[in-house]
Amino acid sequence: MIRYTPLLLGDSLSVGRFDHPAHHPHEDPAEEISSAYSINFVESGRFDLSVGHRSWQLSGGTIFLTCPGFAYRCSHSDATPTDVCLGVEFAPNDEISHELSGLFSNSVRHLPVFSVTNRLAYLRHLLDSGSSDRMRTEAAAHELITALSPGSVEQLRRLYRSRQLCWYAERIEACRERMEVNYATDLSLSLLARSVGMSRFHFARIFSELAGIPPHKYLLQVRLRAAASRLLQGDTVTHACFACGFQNLSHFTRTFHRHFGVLPSTYRGC
User: Fold this and answer.
1) By residue range, what is the domain housing residue 179?
2) What CATH number did the domain enclosing 197 receive?
3) Is 233 within the bounds of a domain?
4) Measured between alpha carbons, how far is 142 from 185 in angstroms, rounded to an integer?
5) Do 99 and 196 share a domain, yes or no?
6) What is the number of structural domains in the chain?
7) Rounded CA gap, 166 and 163, in Å?
8) Distance between CA 190 and CA 188 in Å, rounded?
9) Torsion over CA of 139, 140, 146 and 147, rounded to 10 degrees?
10) CA atoms within a 13 Å half-sphere pointing along the CA-CB vector of 159
């Protein structure tokens, strides 16, 4: 018997936990066929995953992907399995289905199993702890797609212990939220690091590893998105520039053009 506990249910995205109730014998299906794109974190326990003539033993710290039509078999050696998985499922007709198709189809065909990295563990933490905040959970799920894209999965380093990861995650999230709210103010690396009790070097390294982007680039992207929103609402280029924390109009124009592919003045007329 497999039990599913939903953490987030939506038309295009769902997040939930799979486990096996105690004292309920379990019989493995001969074959399962996925109906959606999914990213599955094995949190504890172990089982075998078979795809055609290939097989892997999965345990805590591994991830496996599925896509629509993907046929696989999960085998357990115990009558009452103890494995627990956190699953993120995207509907096949979701607006990002094209991006998902490229990532999942290639990965599932060649290697549907990954080892968890600190970046992926951080995103799993956000998916789990942010279940009461729908926007936060959805953002983490979409970050997960980018983190699993070809070339993005980092070389496996020493994984942080659960308590250590939670400590880091709380501080990185606090700084991300601060940048998203106070993007127009002068936010230095030193200020952000001090606000969460970390040294500049340590904070910069941990932020880059878990968020997947250095702090200064994250802040730049927040400011550019805010400027784009202001321009679409009719703000002038000059006012959008300085209202979003940029100190030089020429620099803002060049940076905006590199990021969006059009000049701010053109974007304003879109």
Assistant:
1) 175-270
2) 1.10.10.60
3) yes
4) 28
5) no
6) 2
7) 5
8) 5
9) 160
10) 13
